[in-house]
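User: My advisor, Dr. K., asked me to get a structural model of this assembly before our group meeting. I'm new to this, so sorry if the format is off. These are the inputs:
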Amino acid sequence: MKRIVVLSGKGGTGKTSIVASLALAAAAEGGGLAAVDCDVDAPNLALLFGMGEGDFEEWKGIKASEKAAFDSEKCVHCGKCREICEFSAIEWDEGRRMPGIDRFLCEGCGACGIVCPPGAISIEKVENASIGWGRSKYGFPVATGQLKMGESSSGNVVAEVRKMADAVAGKEGAGHMLIDAAAGISCPVIASVTGTDYGLVVTEPTPPALRDAGRAISLLGHFGVPTGMVLNKWDLNPDFSEKVSEFAERNGVPVLSRIPYDKTFTKAVAKLVPAAELSSELKGMFSGIWEKIR
Amino acid sequence: MRIAVTGGKGGTGKSTVATALAVELGKRHEVVLADADVECPDDHLILSIERKGFADVKLPLPAFDFEKCIKCGKCASTCRYNAIVQVKGKYPIFDPGLCNGCGACMLVCPAGAISRGQRKVGEIFRGEGHGISLFSGEMEVGYEEASPVVNALKEKIPKSEFEIIDTAAGTHCNVISALRGCDYAVAVTEPTPFGAHDLELILRLAAVLGVPAGVVVNRSDLGETGEVNKIAEKHGAEVIAEIPYSKEMLESYSRGEPVAGKGILGIAEMLEAMLK
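Assistant: The format is fine. Below is the predicted structure of the whole assembly, which you can bring to the meeting.
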């Protein structure tokens, strides 16, 4: 199975819209596809395929985060836990001479538990997300997840979503997997890029988008993933689009397609369908991109 | 007063609003703008401000001394991030990309073979322009965790009348770090099903963190604003501005100039009233 990840660095360049339309092109070709939304912070892909809660065959809570848990009866008030914590996640209650765990800062590393003389601190698994998969009306399965608000370890959640997607895709003998990554380049995006065969960077002709595309390209390079670029809304600034192309060429990244600014994308999001379903022109364009990356 | 500009969804115009708001407030107040989208910081490009290195962000990193190592494997079994792998009878293999610098391996090594090194995980830059100070955090490419850079950035910014924190997209750790301790959050969204869906997430996150929030509907003429308004109301957040799509705004953006307009002025006046 070939795994293709779509990322951009900058948010709002059109990753999800492009993944959805590419998925239709892939599905039309046959050969089996699984689509995966790895933007577990703010997932929108299943939404764009028109999927609601009832369309999921499996949906479950997962414990992909760990936090320190503290037993106040065992505490000997030594303060060693606070000294050792690299993340300032232990607050000290001067009055009671007792620690409190700041769960937003705790990384669950366990260093505090190692130094605690009476063993009053343990590491507990915390439910931090829900993940699931369902079948879209286009026939292919879609796996996704949702981080619980205020919880951490989104990279681990992405890894769990991908495990579920791998199992479903494996059972169906899917030939391709399309992965929609989050904005940015940190843990959830790294977890989306790991073990993929191709990275598609979506950008648009503005200086911020180009700079962030550069960071996304560096990330893919860091993990040795072959890379291509799609330049979205290129005609909003044809001059800068030339600069984007030059930048891509200097970095050895082929520009696979220039997609014009097209109100169909906005309409498609409002209607919750992939844009390629509304326009034969876009349909042809996405089939062309799919031919190059499949 | 510390104001976060956030939104959940990417590309709704967070940085456009944050930079414009900072420049507007900077006409009458002392303003620091902190670009806390440390994965992809762009505020300096939007404002054409030249940044200079201000401080490195460093974290501990274990350094292995194989002459002392007794191949016991305790470091590998203690590390909760799989950054240390050990095959029985062999020296441990360390992957710095997965290490968050917690130091647990150093604590359990019976041979004292792991010492405390350091590495750079990001940098804080500083620049001036348009009457404001810009502090911008930038994470090293390939490093996993953005939060330490966000936290370092928030520590470095000088106390000012207005401290505007421009957050990353999403709702995970780096956004949590950016939002914590802010007096108010401006959630920038757009009138689309995606905007509405992600607005609900960010308003829930702000509530979990105890930060009051208001909503800015950007490109308000792009679609029906009903759903976005409903979500704002459901979470007790006021819609503080609607900014229609304008070509002039897009042009200022691509020229590297802050945008201006009635919507931005309205938000600035509301925040000034809050300061009083």
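One thing worth pointing out at the meeting: The domain at 66-112 of chain B is CATH 3.30.70.20 (Alpha-Beta Plaits).

User: Perfect, thanks a lot.
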